[in-house]
Design goal:
Blueprint (H helix, E strand, L loop, with lengths): L1 H27 L6 H21 L7 H22 L22 H28 L5 H7 L2 H8 L12 H4 L9 H6 L8 H20 L4 H12 L2 H4 L7 H22 L3 H14 L9 H18 L12 H26 L5 H8 L6 H22 L6 H19 L41 H10 L5 H21 L6 H11 L14 H28 L23 H9 L2 E4 L8 H5 L6 E2 L12 E8 L6 E5 L9 E8 L1 E8 L3 H4 L6 E11 L2 E6 L12 E9 L4 E8 L5 E4 L8 E9 L7 E7 L20
Parallel strand pairs: 1-2, 1-3
Antiparallel strand pairs: 3-6, 4-7, 5-6, 7-8, 8-11, 9-10, 9-12, 12-13
Length: 791
């Protein structure tokens, strides 16, 4: 009952804020067709201002304070806009020329297109609404850091760094995006609502594209067609419910581009202020805009060359702007986009972690081979991978095998240009074929934009043939994806997640989509154009349908399973959920590099969450969670000790994380509620190169082990064929270190651990674990079902 009440209160809060913005738009006489874009930008800006304001009083975690301050934040943003609102200045584009568009004269064809375009867009919206409210978020980066960050900030009470982090993304990344989720946490609503910011961003992007087309005097059907080509692009559509940042930052940026257009063509200065807010929200959410700087510089140099050649002043091409408006717009851009840098400096003495990023991601050696290799791989993947995305008739493993066959067929074409040198790759990524391994999952980080690249020649032809006002503006927008692909290939190391980044730059080019539908110069070209568009539309519809149904994590195929809803991909077992919901204070320890923090947090959004890196306060009321992958390569070795004198760590069950993960906990009296499973200890082995050898070290700190237990340990390290490599007889120390000749990255060694009481030498327990490799251990209770693929 309380959940429903808080959902209703949160909805009323949202409607009240949006309603006030609508009343304001009506009061100042803004065209009603622009209201949705203005509401989106001003509402998000108000939430950002609210987050900063409540942080001044360490009240980010207080719902009453947040509600009151949100109206103050909205007033602050609206007042700033009202200050720059004035009668339009004179514009140099009083007589605007527009492109001439194709004439779809057939009533039957017009009726078909209206039904098909509007029907498929509506179906896409409905499916994403179903996905949002039927699936808990499951994007790996969202679980690992993106959606977890607001929980830590809310617990901390302000937007300064909540802790010192090894993974700099958790604390140094911009904060505008995470402030969209703060109200959801404060109202304690289900995490199914966390997909709504992505969905609203997709709707805003689509509407901005439509309004751009209409502003260019395209008729409604043509504008709808242009919108379809953007909104239904597979790599864009999938982000409507994925919780990725790319769709979040594209929506305000494209809305800002529309406001730039309105400023240029109307002279109304307040549009420049709105555009600055949109750009600020983009920068303040994720720094993809960094790669737009070279593109903007190219546009600036082109404009400067244009003026120099004609001996003209820039003043005759840009509307007059009052100094106060320029200062206000720069202030809006800085406040929304750059304040996080100040917070970083106050928190750590550094504005950002550029050095770490450059070392890991950038092609610092300026290697031409790396640049050419990247460009060839990315381009060939973009062109060829959609062939695999059309495969809707096979099962997952069938598609996987088909992709392997396609890669083998295509390998001779690209292999001569690709090096296996790890210096050309980001972290542990390697080139596994034109169709990347994650393609078979049909998820956002492995999905290219279908065959939309076939529309680029149509845009080039239109821009070359048509003369219209501000044509260079649209030239730069249309060229953005291609220019970015070249820049990215040159300055970075190869990685597999590029389709997600590429989708952002496709969204930046959304206003240029209408140029595919300008009037053709010849009948032959018109027929070729419609043939290309028909092919792109048909294949896009197939890929979108395939993704909607067969997406591994959020596909509609999950409705055929006998699982509770909303669907939890990680399959949290009930004891884990119950203990999380019972706790008011929770510490999720860093046990490996891919801990899905949000997957635990969303079960109890109103708890206080502590740093995963630093020890929390010595409070018995804190629930400490240890999630341990069972794959041998992670090195965890839990052992159950019967009649253990003191409580150890308590086994609660398993989840489907990085494969199977066993979840342990201690604190908050969890041992009293699970007396049969509260006597575990968990050893951990670390393997790393040591010159020509490899060092194996058992950590000296063992969760669950207490001095009062008075246990002794015996270790025997053997090869798979039982040859003893190392033995250490009984000792109270639970650790040892040894160098071995064989890489533990492959299954080669077995470690037998024996544990006994140091008092009476009774109750000896022995367990054998593989060192390295993909084999996994499993904790099972009597009567548990056997392992399945889900485990």
């Amino acid at each position: 009952m309380n959940d429903v009440l808080f959902v209703m209160l949160g909805f009323a809060h949202l409607v009240a804020l949006a309603g006030l913005i609508v009343l304001y738009c009506r009061h100042i006489g803004l065209p009603w067709r622009e209201w949705p874009l203005v509401v989106f930008v001003l509402l998000w800006s108000a939430l950002v201002a609210t987050g900063y304001l409540v942080s001044l009083f360490d009240a980010l975690g207080s719902l009453p304070a947040y509600i009151v301050t949100s109206f103050l934040g909205l007033g602050f943003v609206v007042l700033a806009h009202r200050v720059v609102f004035a009668a339009p200045q004179k514009t140099p584009y009083a007589r605007i020329s527009y492109p001439a568009y194709v004439d779809i004269a057939s009533p039957k064809m017009r009726r078909f297109l209206w039904r098909f375009l509007a029907g498929t867009l509506a179906a896409a919206l409905v499916i994403h609404l179903i996905v949002c409210f039927s699936f808990y978020p499951v994007n790996a980066d969202s679980l690992n850091y993106r959606l977890a960050r607001p929980f830590w900030y809310v617990s901390h009470g302000n937007l300064l760094h909540p802790f010192m982090s090894v993974d700099k993304r958790l604390t140094f990344y911009p904060v505008d995006g995470i402030l969209l989720y703060v109200p959801l946490i404060l109202y304690g609503v289900s995490s199914v609502f966390f997909g709504l910011p992505s969905l609203f961003s997709w709707l805003t992007l689509s509407y901005a594209t439509y309004r751009f087309a209409r502003a260019l005097q395209a008729e409604r059907l043509i504008a709808l067609f242009a919108t379809w080509l953007v909104a239904m692009t597979p790599s864009i559509l999938i982000e409507a419910s994925s919780t990725n940042d790319e769709i979040l930052i594209a929506a305000p940026l494209v809305a800002g581009l529309f406001f730039i257009w309105r400023w240029l063509t109307s002279g109304a200065e307040h549009y420049l202020f709105l555009a600055a807010l949109g750009a600020g929200l983009c920068i303040g959410t994720k720094l993809h805009v960094f790669f737009l700087i070279p593109i903007a510089l190219i546009g600036f140099l082109w404009f400067a060359w244009f003026l120099w050649r004609r001996h003209e002043s820039w003043r005759i091409w840009l509307p007059r702007v009052r100094v106060s408006v320029m200062v206000s717009s720069f202030g809006a851009l800085s406040f929304m986009g750059l304040t996080f840098l100040v917070l970083n400096y106050i928190s750590s003495g550094n504005f950002y972690f550029l050095a770490d990023t450059a070392q890991q991601v950038l092609n610092l050696g300026a290697s031409l081979q790396d640049a050419m290799q990247n460009f060839i791989i990315y381009t060939s993947s973009m062109i060829m991978a959609p062939i695999a995305d059309l495969n809707f008739w096979q099962s997952f493993h069938g598609r996987e095998e088909t992709n392997r066959v396609l890669n083998n067929m295509l390998a001779p074409l690209i292999q001569p240009f690709v090096s296996d040198d790890p210096h050309f790759y980001h972290l542990k990524y390697r080139f596994h074929g034109i169709i990347i391994p994650t393609s078979v999952l049909l998820v956002e980080y492995g999905l290219w934009p279908g065959f939309m690249w076939l529309l680029w020649p149509l845009q080039v032809a239109a821009l070359a043939r048509q003369k219209f006002t501000l044509r260079p503006f649209f030239v730069m927008l249309a060229a953005t994806p291609v220019i970015w692909l070249v820049i990215w290939s040159c300055v970075t190391l190869y990685m597999e997640g590029v389709p997600t980044y590429f989708a952002f730059y496709l969204m930046c080019a959304a206003p240029a989509s209408v140029l595919c539908l300008v009037r053709a110069g010849t009948l032959r070209f018109d027929r070729i154009r419609w043939a290309i568009i028909a092919f792109v539309v048909a294949t896009t519809a197939v890929i979108d349908g395939n993704v909607g149904i067969n997406n591994t994590f959020r596909g509609l195929w999950h409705f055929t399973e006998n699982q509770p809803w909303p669907y939890d991909w990680l399959r949290f077992q009930r004891p884990i959920i119950d203990e999380i919901r019972r706790a008011n204070k929770i510490h999720i320890a860093l046990t490996h590099g891919k801990v899905y923090y949000f997957a635990f947090m969303h079960w109890n959004p109103q708890a206080t969450y502590y740093s995963p890196y630093q020890a929390p306060p010595n409070d018995p009321g804190i629930l400490h969670i240890l999630t341990t992958p069972s794959e041998a390569s992670y090195g965890f070795m839990p052992i159950k000790i019967p009649d253990k004198p003191t409580p150890g760590i308590t086994y609660l069950g398993h989840i489907r994380g990085v494969d199977r993960e066993e979840v342990f906990a201690f604190g908050n009296d969890v041992n009293l509620r699970h007396p049969d499973d509260c006597n575990f200890i968990s050893l951990h082995v670390t393997a790393k190169p040591a010159g020509p050898l490899y060092n194996l070290t058992i950590d000296s700190v063992v969760p669950g082990l207490n001095v009062a237990d008075q246990l002794e340990f015996d270790f025997a390290l053997k090869t798979l064929d039982k040859i003893i490599v190392y033995e250490r007889t009984w000792d109270t120390r639970p650790d040892f270190s040894i160098d071995v000749p064989h890489s533990p990255g492959d299954p080669y060694y077995l470690l037998t651990i024996s544990v006994r009481s140091a008092l009476n030498y009774s109750k000896t327990v022995s367990e054998t674990f593989a060192i390295g490799g993909s084999n996994a251990w499993r904790i099972a209770h009597p009567g548990d079902p056997p392992d399945t693929d889900d485990d």
